[in-house]
Design brief:
2 copies of one chain form a homodimer. With 175 residues, chain A is mainly alpha-helical. Chain A has a domain of 55 residues: Arc Repressor Mutant, subunit A (Orthogonal Bundle), CATH 1.10.10.60. Chain A is built from 4 helices and 2 strands. The radius of gyration of chain A is 23 Å and the shape is extended. Chains A and B meet through strand 1, strand 2, helix 1 and helix 2 of A and strand 1, strand 3 and helix 1 of B. Chain B binds a DNA duplex (16 and 16 nucleotides) through helix 4. Chains A, B: It comes from Hibiscus syriacus (Rose of Sharon). Chains A, B: InterPro entries: HD, Homeodomain-like_sf, WOX13-like. Chains A, B: It is found in: Nucleus.
Chain lengths: 175, 175
DNA sequence: ACGTTATGAATGAATG
DNA sequence: CATTCATTCATAACGT
């Protein structure tokens, strides 16, 4: 039976409608930060994941049938996923600025985490080449990404190390 | 200051591997059940969703190449969904966002109007420090505020003068 | 309750 | 690199 004392931070707002992910002190032993969420929020998360699961399944099915029979001219597109759930704005916009796809991001993060800090020119070329398999990308994009990523992770470091006394006041949700 | 007593349900597990979303009693007023999760767990959820996103994209790619090869008439699945969608930067949480109090806003506006445009790092610190007397605030908040304030006041200028650019929140038609 | 607007925050790119 | 700018997403606030 673990008891946790939750003290709501920043009481500067009277009518907090449903801001309810708060930081939490665990007072048994150390100090541990956890999130608190309502059933509703958790439900939302579950739904989001469920939607993905559903989409994935449908796509897999689709792919299977496609590869199985080649002559299916009328594949019923019953596999519409209703985009309103998770993808609230399925705009068909042509963005002018590059946005990494999920796959690309994953790869980039992985490389970044390997700590091989400096991405040499050669390296950049390679990465860009690999990433181009998963979507439009240029070497400049890769370069910028690493620049920004490093800078921002650094900034985060400094910011958090400022004054971490145990005062319950601090400890805003990490950015 | 709301105090919440968390008692872990079914304490039949010592080494809580990662089943540790527990129910919670709120003892102020009514009884409210919420879940508690560590950052780590939240991260896990995020990753799960990210993985789904990744898989989905890959599947879409697969499908695209398949349909491309085989000239399947009428099967143009526009499976495109914006990568921005739900987890812009893998953020899932209902992020709580800072909202300046009236007093804070007043002060900020005043400083902004003084035209001392660039708020240096040091300045930011001071301002944040002062504003913290009037409510929860972080240096990042201050930084962002000035950033946004400047950008938007500038945009307004431009918009009113010559051709009216689209408002900030438009959605542009695809290519 | 629900759609709109205002605005805090995230981030790709540019600039020094 | 360090900062700044520009654009866009996401949501608090607000009107209906």
């Amino acid at each position: 039976m673990t008891k946790i004392m939750i003290t709501e931070l920043e009481g500067h707002q009277e009518n907090k409608t449903q801001k309810d992910i708060v930081n939490v002190h665990v007072n048994n032993g150390g100090v541990m930060y956890v999130k608190v969420m309502t059933d509703e929020q958790l439900e939302t998360l579950r739904n989001q994941i469920a939607v993905y699961a559903s989409i994935c399944e449908q796509l897999v099915e689709m792919h299977k049938s496609l590869t199985a029979q080649q002559d299916l001219t009328g594949i019923s597109l019953s596999l519409y996923f209703s985009p309103y759930t998770c993808f609230h704005g399925h705009k068909i916009t042509a963005r002018q600025r590059w946005t990494p796809t999920a796959v690309q991001l994953q790869i980039l993060e992985r490389i970044f985490d390997q700590g091989t800090g400096t991405p040499s020119k050669q390296k950049i070329k390679e990465i860009a080449s690999e990433l181009s398999l998963h979507g439009q990308i240029s070497e400049t994009n890769v370069y910028n990404w690493f620049q920004n990523r490093r800078a921002r992770s650094k900034r985060k470091q400094l910011g958090s190390s400022s004054n971490n006394a145990e005062s319950e006041q601090e400890s805003r949700v990490a950015e």
